[in-house]
Amino acid sequence: MLERELLEGTYQSGAYHYFFIHDPKTRQVAAAPFRDRVVHHALVRVLEPLFERRFIEDSYACRKGRGNTCGNAALSRVATLHVSRAFQRPVCGWHNEASADSSAN
Fold it and tell me: What string of H, E and C letters represents the secondary structure of the chain?
């Protein structure tokens, strides 16, 4: 029946069930009916590979094999790289002046 509705273009999503949870804070959850969840998963299986190819390398949210842990690790690598480069750069040309002074002696 669901397959026929999808093929014929007559599928309509059902009503969401709303409820509150209180862990760790109070928030409202909207739960789709089971048959709609089946459609959602089918759509993800088709669309995810198409979108995945277009995401930039440094995109981590809601991606398989990625997430907060990978994102934090990448941020740490980039921050470390920029900090080490910052210490290698001259600050207002002070190192050039010091070099000139030492060569004059």
Answer: CHHHHHHHCCCCCCCCEEEEECCCCCEEEEECCHHHHHHHHHHHHHHHHHHHCCCCCCCCCCCCCCCHHHHHHHHHHHHHHHHHHHHHCCCCCHHHHHHHHHHHC
Matching residue, tokens 């669901």: 2
What single-letter amino acid sits at 11? Y
Mean pLDDT score of the chain: 83
Q: Which conformational region is residue 67 in: left (phi greater than 0), alpha (psi within -120 to 50 degrees), or beta?
A: left
pLDDT value of residue 56:
82
SS (H, E, C) 13-31: CCCCEEEEECCCCCEEEEE
Q: Domain extents for the chain?
A: 1-54, 60-105
pLDDT by 10-residue block (mean), the chain, 105 residues: 96 97 95 97 93 84 83 86 66 52 52
